[in-house]
Each structure stands twice: as structure tokens, then as C-alpha cells.
Design a protein that fits this description.
The chain contains 2 helices and 4 strands. By secondary structure, the protein is of the alpha+beta class. The chain has a two-stranded antiparallel sheet. The protein starts with a helix and ends in a 10-residue tail after the last strand. The mean pLDDT is 89.
């Protein structure tokens, strides 16, 4: 298994654990803090919409979007 696969598998394991602790809606702080992988912090959320942590510089780990705004009546 290559590094990319190992990090992504660790991310899903972390998310499964956090859902058990917090329920289906995870706090933004938990996602921004992320998880440790081989002694390195891997955030799942940041100030930009596309997260490419240093451990995976070429392929994004997550993408954040906002729901469309409803037109005002």
C-alpha cells in the first residue's frame, strides 16, 4: 500500500472514530485539528476550500464547499 492510500485509510479511520464520539455532524475544530500520521499532523479542513496537506502535496485530501444560497423572496 502506498503513502497516499495509507493516509486516506487513516483519515477514514479517524472520521469513523470521531463520528462515534460526536455523532454524524463533526465539529469544525475536530476536522481542522485532524489526526496524526507517522508523527505528522494531517488536517482535514483549513481556511481554503481545497486541502492538500504537506504529507500529500499533489492530490487534495478534502474539498470544502458551501450550500447554494436560496433566492430571497
Amino acid at each position: 500500500m502506498d503513502l497516499d492510500q495509507r493516509v486516506r485509510l487513516a483519515a477514514f479511520t479517524f472520521l469513523d472514530q470521531q463520528v462515534q464520539l460526536h455523532g454524524e455532524t463533526l465539529p469544525r475544530t475536530v476536522l481542522a485539528r485532524g489526526f496524526d500520521f507517522d508523527g505528522r499532523r494531517v488536517p482535514l479542513l483549513g481556511p481554503e476550500g481545497i486541502i492538500k496537506p504537506a504529507i500529500l502535496p499533489s492530490i487534495p485530501l478534502s474539498i470544502t464547499t458551501a450550500p447554494p444560497k436560496r433566492p430571497e423572496a
